[in-house]
Amino acid sequence: MAGEAMKSGNDMTVVRGLDLVRYMGRWYELASVPSFFQPRDGRNTRATYTLQEDGATVHVLNETWSKGKRDAIEGSAYKADPNSDEAKLKVKFYVPPVLPIIPVVGDYWVLYVDDDYQVALVGEPRRKFLWILCRKTSIDEEVYNELLEKAKAEGYDVSKLHKTPQDDPPPEADAAPTDSKGVWWFKSLFGK
What we know:
By secondary structure, the chain is mainly beta. The protein is 12% helix and 36% strand.
């Protein structure tokens, strides 16, 4: 990004007036900037969001498949500022999965969602993490490239994005053994 001025986190364009009800459901990760807490060989990565009875808290279920096993972690999301119309959320997970006692909180900013709530671009103010999400396991290359351009405009280095392999049809949660011991999380601490 030589020669370009970097926007600060406060200058990022964030969706305003996000319809949480329409945003709920399953989203497939089509690409992401890899993070330490995800298995390096993860595929079929997806998130399922469910609005809780209070109408403000979202139950989060993140799943991925690694070495033939389903890895999952559950958490919650909520608006960072309940009085703002910006789609700036906080997500909270408890780790390690085997004995969830340590809360880990991160930013989840919806930078773009299309009018039909079928594709989304999600990031955070430090630009360390970025996700391209879709309701389906694949996306038109033209739409994918438009999302890349939107990410670039927000100051992201899109060369760090890695496409996430997705099977079509996607696996069912009970179709593979589950890593119930949280081994994947401990391995992630060592970059595996």
